[in-house]
Records
---
Amino acid sequence: MPFTASPLVGGDAYEMAQRLALEVDAELSALSDAGEQLACLRRHWDAIAGLGWMATMVAEDAGGAGGDLSDVAALACGAGRGGLPLPIATACVVAPALLAAAGARDMLAQVAEGAARICVILPDAAQDPGATRLSFDRTLEGGVVGVETPPDPTHLLLATKAGELLLLSVDSPGITRSLSMRIDGRLAADWHFVGVAVAQEQVLARGIADQADRARDLGALITCVEGVSAMGAIIEQTIAFLSDRVQFNAPLASYQALRHRVAEMYVEYENLRGLVAHALREAAATDALPWRDIALAKLRLGEAGRLVAHETIQMHGGMGLTEGVAAIRLARRVMMAEFEFGDRSFQADRLLAQVA
Amino acid sequence: MEVDYEAFRREVTEFAQTRCPPEIRAVVATYRKLSRKIWQPWQQILHAHGWGAPSWPKQFGGTGWDPQQRHIFDEVMAENDCPPQYHHGLRHIGPVIIEFGTPEQQARFLPGILSGEDWWCQGYSEPGAGSDLASLRTAARREGDEYIVDGQKTWTSHAHESDWMYTLVRTSKEAKKQQGITMLLIPLNSPGITIRPIRTIDGWHHVNEVFLDNVRVPVANRIGEEGKGWTYGKFLLERERLGGANVAPALKNLERTRELVAQELAGETHRAKRAALELRLLLAEAELRGALALGKEAVAAVMEGRPLGLLPSVLKLSTSVTHQHVAEVAMDAVGERLAPRFRRIDGSGPNAEAPGIEWVQNYMYMRVRTIYGGSSEVQKNVIAKQLFGS
């Protein structure tokens, strides 16, 4: 029996998420028109909201399911195998964590029922070189780019460097945006703010910089879970491809050079899987988030994920450069994950700051 | 009976910190070469405490610990710079004698291993049989109550300070080369044995060539049946599969290399180089933390009687390379000033070598990690076979 990856967190939710992700992938890969793709994403966003994904971590008294991190991890595991192009970590973990930290119960309820589609801007969001830095002093000025967003966002949840948490309607005067598709087929928005007036009641909280860091780390952990899942699926699909494809009168799977490369992919995958499983266990066992474990895992995701992504492209040959191959679409998901919730430099800097 | 593992860890820690002599720990901490001179007194201390054989059953003088306890023991020892116990007797031939030896053999050999009085080495590899061990050609022919052994072993670690060599020899030529192999226990003071050191790239003396020229070995020194040696040899290697689960020595090594980098490259002049090396160490640490988590999974699997699957191969592959990466960082920190001073030629005595030269030796030595104990290439073959299903 060839290799089949076992999920970090299995169960019904995992199975359901996987089925859904594969359906969406099949549907999306048949579309080439951006408008149709957007509509498809929106439809599936509504579907997962209807299934209660975004309510998973919201407390029961705020209208949620009162689940824990492993419930979201099960969803992320399943979604990761199909590269579901929706912002799962942000929607299921980061936004709820920020809103809970601010005690914003009404908004949490709206998130839980899917009425609010929130784009979260974290303090370290990317900016174009030379652009006006994002600043907030009664009005909001500046811009951020490439921020992952749900389809048709209704709100912006913005955590400032100073530790404020702002909730703005996307239609507020002075806000403009432009949408893009990321390398993994998810949506991203550039946001520009010119003299955006922020009322007192739109400042949900102050002094929550630590909670914002925590929310980002939770997001990083879920991204790692998705990444591990995607890598497992990539290895399975690479093995299947090598076993089927015949060149020089023999299946590619018979060539030792290629077999060894797959073994290397597997070792990297297993090592990361162990680390992420450990971080998940620690996160469940302690109140304090194991940020160091998460940072190390995210660092490794950058290294191991890229190796697995590059190797599957190489071993698929010319096919590896096409969007038509599922393993290659997953590889792009893994490549994008590097830049979510702190890339390798970011994680290395904070870990090294602790060593020094 | 339920074991309190935390209490056990505390007990072992206290023992390690109070009973392992500082001079022995200093040797481990500075990467000086371990030899019988260091190991033997440590084994005596452990034995006197009843901890001479952590992996043996109680009736043979072992501790009867479960895999989790053994793992904790190994981990704590490494964390406290206690030498890992000399393995050839305790972990290799001892368990084989327990499993396949006669009562006479058990009575003759096990006590000496426990007390550290008898020192063992392994006669497996030959010039023509390395990773492909079954190709071995050292031959034994039966003459009455004796075998006459002729041939050559190589890479024989510690033969120069050992009393005995457990040896795989060919007693017949069969169609399948794994058959016709027999395991003999050979005293190294037997007439006809010549031991020559091999000069290895690290400058340490650990391996040797062992020449066997008409060496007479009593049949009573044969383990099990004639021709079944491969089974016993494999049993021994199988038992070692959890060895890679102990990542503690590698983490200790990493910590020490971090200190080296901070001291060696202190100050503004070296800022960029220091940052580059620190980053490499961090990447190594991330990998080791992954291996550490997998090691825990492996121990848990053994505790619950589940198969280990590919975990040992994965651990071996990844930790061996990470060990090497860490050693490379140390080499990059000190290489410019120490690599040129590898061997002093105008001085002698214990202080003749440049202080810190062990970092250079250790870097050289670490190259063996991906070669011994099943080379990386062999491990990848094993993994691929399983992944592809053929």
---
Amino acid sequence: MRSRTSGLGLLLISPAMLLLAIFFFTPALLTGVFSFTNMSSSTGISGGAYVVTPNLLKALSARGMQPATIEALEEASYSVDADGLAAARAADVDPAFLDEIEARYAGRAYATDSDFLAALKDLPSRPRRIRDLKLAMEPFTKSVLNVRFATEELARTAIAERVAGISDDEMATLLSESYTGWVWTTENFGKLFAGHETWRIIANTIFYVATTLTLFNVTLGLFLAVTTFYLPKKLGAIFTVIWLLPRITPVVLYAIMWKWFTWDDGFVAVLAGELGLPSFNYMKGSVTSAWTIVIMVNGFIGASFGMILFSGALRSIPIQQLWASEVDGATRWQQVRYIILPQLRWPILFVTSYQTLSLLTSYQEIWLTTNGGPGSTTTVWALESFRTALFNYSGSLQYGLGAAMALLLVAVGLMLSIIYLRLFRFGELVTQPKIEF
Amino acid sequence: MQITLKNFTKSFDGNVVIDRMNLEIRDGEMLALLGPSGCGKSTTLLAISGIHRVNGGQILFGDRDVSNLPSQKRNVGVVFQNYALYPHMNAYENIAFPLQVRGQSKTEIEKAVGQIAALTHIEPYMSRRPGQLSGGQQQRVALARALVRRPDVLLLDEPLANLDAKLRLEMRSEIRRIQQETGITAILVTHDQVEAMSMSDRIAIMDQGEIMQISTPDDMYRNPVNRFIAGFMGNPPIVMVDGRVEGTAFETTSGFRLPLPGRLGGLKHGRPISIGIRPEHFGSTGAHTVAGTISFVEPQGRESHFDVRVGEGVVLRSIQPSRRDVAVGQPVEWPIDIESTLVFDEQGKTL
């Protein structure tokens, strides 16, 4: 084959390459990058600061940090100095009270809360309410707790000042743990497989993809294609259009219609009631019914795709072959089984591979209908990844973890693609063109 | 098995294409349905095979009325123009298919396929798929598939149309040989008169959904019932000259005269007729001679075709053993075999 690169060719595909770069390669690359960070809505996506919180200390203590270090860090001390007075003034503490503090205690330091409180209670113009008194104490606090240090250096100095003789290890731990911004990490993947929910979601995903694919996208698609093929032309066309409706209806509208259909007092529930069957919200009421609905919602969309593809392939079989098989004595079923199905091998493989990938990554229908419920029984990987990273009620979004989930999905998708391309013998499909330029 | 069509009628969407046709195919004979495209010959074939249902009349296989049976229950073998081999099966599987769907045992199938493969000379290609076979080999496989379950009738729909000239000659005699060896009743649909004449016992010539004449190839060539058939049979074709009866002779408006054959006495003076002269009846023997100028010479090796202008607007064609003594523009005076000429009346009926 000639390997001549034509400038015009490159020019012609450049818009496609540009769009591919913007909408596919960049997001995929960023997903890869994010999945190796611990970015979340609490770390933000820009930098962070160093803050030692009481919660952090509790956690560190549980992890075995020296009690002495913890105590030293927790300990709040007070010293009446120029800084403290200025801060108190800025915080609108009664100036008369401050003057008294300055006059009586300037230069003194107090180890504990109660010492300083007792000292302040001696002053005549102290605030009556104990709360105001505490507020007035605050500016004199000398503590690392809940102070935001902009750089690592500031944090290190402050900690070293509080805890004389802190070991290097403990300092390193403290610094890394107290950092509020995001850091590079590979923990996401470990975290994923430690979580007991993960395996359940994987099982859900496999069940969802396999069932929808086999029952609807392939089997129902084939069934529809074959039946409409044997129907009179007009009738067949009407059925084709009806089965196309799920695909051409906007997905939100389609989901809402399903919701109405399966509502507590919707069609299905009422009908079930009339028939003496349990009447409840079939979309969210039970695991079995929820799965049934989820698979049907997605399956009806997929079936029409298969139907269109298989119909086209069916029509490309020369009619004489079907005649020949009838003359040869084949019944309708034998005709379908031995003549039609074997010749639909490639379309079936194509639908299988294409739909595996699209079912693996599509979550919108599930999100809009059962939203993964009841509980997390119908939650699939793509939905969980979307919720982890971008959308959940608690509002704590774990971009890094979500990206890691998405990355795994991309990896699985790539692997499946390669397997399918092998099956397709893709090389044969892109051999030398029949027309030479 | 004898096949009988009684008042067979077929229409598509209300358009009657074949109206009350009657046809009988004798047991063991090969009948050619010959006609121009669109004459209804393939429709007839598909109706006999059961792919098209009849709209009226009967189709009998022997004494059995199969008119309303689906093709699965008719026991016919069909070779389609494009062979319609199943592309995903190899030659063996293609041939075995009719037996396999009937649920025959493996050994039975193997035996039957082996026999038919020997008959059609395709044993070496049994494991190849249709895509790996040449046109002639595909044709043989299609024949084998049609014959393997010993059908009551073998239907061939333009079986040679997709072959090149050399293969066509070879398959022509092959199909005939196989038909004669098996003694099967066969119907050959073709638009090619050479195919029809060389392969069949009898020819039924069709035009616009009607059978115009059924006869042996030889008889049909010599005694066509009308002008259409005379024009259809023979290559190079017969030359038709239009004119009138002038006493015992024929004369065109431009004044070209020929005596009429002796068998046709007493034709009314002035009656419009046309005369058909086959190329082999002009230029070799005959009592009457015609003078003219050679306007075209087509050498064919063994023989030559000549066009001779014998009068204003009248050109006769002659076929003779190859000769070099004449050239274009040369005046010649050649004999014409008047008794072999064909004369047609105004409606085209042979007189």
